[in-house]
Structures are given as C-alpha cells and as structure tokens.
Amino acid sequence: MNDRTLLVTGATGVLGREVLRRAHETGCTVRALTRRTAPPDVPGAAGTDWRTGDLTANTGLDAALIGVDTVIHCASDPRRPQHDLPALRHLLDAARRAGVRHVVNISIVGVDRVPMRYYRIKLAGEQLLAASGLGWTNLRATQFPQLLDGMLTALARLPVVPMLAGTPVQPVHPAEVADRLVTLALGQPAGHAPDFGGPEIHPATELAASWLRATHRPRRVLPLHLPGRLGTALRHGHLTTPTHPHGTTTWTDYLTTRPT
C-alpha cells in the first residue's frame, strides 16, 4: 500500500472519473472533493474517500486537505468560467495551509495562443499556480472526443452542420490523459510538463463528416471561414501539438465504441 493520499477535484467529470480509476491502481489513498452531501455514484471509484466541499464558495477545503500529499485539480466549468480562478485560488490557499507537497493541474493546449475568454482564464490559472509557492505541475492536453461529440450532436440538429474550415484538431482520450496526470502526481513537481495530444490530427470538417457517417445522420458539413484573430489562431493549428502525439486511441476508435 502506498502511503500517499491523493485528492482529486472535479472527480465526477469526464476526466476526473478516469483519474479516480487510475489513482486507485497506484495503491494510494484516494480522496475526492464533491459539493454533494451524499457520495456520488461514480463507476470504477469504489473505495474513494469522498469529502464534501465547495471550491467556489470556499467551504470544506481545510478538512478535505488534511493529510493530503498531492492534489490533482480537474475541476472546471466552461459554462461559468468566471468561477474557475476564485476556485483555484481557494484551493491553493487551503493547500498551503495543509502543507500539500504537490498540485497537478490540467490545462488546454493553446491557452497561450488562442484568444478565447475561457482560454485566457485557464492561462491565468496556470500563472496563479506557478506563483503559489507550492510544488506544481501543469499539463496541457488537446480536446477530448466526448467534447467534440457533444458539440456535433448539438450542431446536427441543424439542416447542415457548420464547421470551421482549415482548422486542425487532435482528439485525445481522457483515460490516457488521466494516466499521465496520475503518473505526474506520483513524481516530483515538474512545472510545465510536455503537452499531451492525441495520435492523429484531423481537419475539423473531416472529423465532422466522419462523425455524421458513424452516427447515421444524413447531413452535409458546411465549411465556415472564421475571421479575425481567433480564426487565424485556429487555422494555424494552435489547438494541436504535432510534436507531442502521445495518445494512442484514435478518433475512429472512439466512434467505433461510443454509446449509441
């Protein structure tokens, strides 16, 4: 039995669930933070020590962090990104009080090059972590296929599916990112870790077309040219990391196994 205690935030999300599964394989004591009064039913997370706390409201954090060696921070809300920075600040403050040795943060490839509000907030979070005085590791990953799947499901309600022209994307499976996060958490603080991307880069329009075929939706993809700095950044491939294709699960693999 490993005598370390790992705390996972965002443990009920797409990535957090995978982190819990992988963390349990290490022999560490695995703790997770939840806002719910009753422990969530997360498949594969049996044996998790669930602690009640709220990062945004800054409640329950001191109790949750007692005895914790390493935090893996997966909590984020793209729908309410204004909460992310205060939540991280509260977490880091509590981690300092608790004597946490190492905070591992998940971020996104391109946060420093793509002018989107959510990305600017993620970049500010990286900077906050680096200035925290704690041991820290930051991992940037490319987009999860589940995110792309959800976006395409919404767009497929239209007569045609609009998709950005000339924009490369590099889907990576969250289980593989989770494996890297846990490996980093068990090591020494590394600062900015190498990016983590999927095995293949696809034009967004081709990715959408393959999704439509796999889901048997009789729709046509409508390529759109996005103007301005954002469009330029996306067409330049700033969402991808061609030199770090560390994942092995392809977009086709995902489409083959996705729930129908």
Describe the protein.
- With 260 residues, this protein is an alpha/beta fold.
- It has a domain at 5-142 and 173-192: 3-Layer(aba) Sandwich (Rossmann fold).
- The chain is 36% helix and 19% strand.
- The strands form three sheets. A seven-stranded parallel beta sheet has the order 3-2-1-4-5-6-9, sandwiched between helices. Strands 7-11 form a two-stranded parallel sheet. It has a two-stranded antiparallel sheet with strand order 8-10.
- α3 (84-98) links the parallel β4 (70-73) and β5.
- α1 packs across α6, α3 (84-98) runs parallel beside α4 and α7 packs parallel to α9 (251-257).
- The radius of gyration is 19 Å and the shape is globular.
- The N and C termini lie far apart (39 Å).
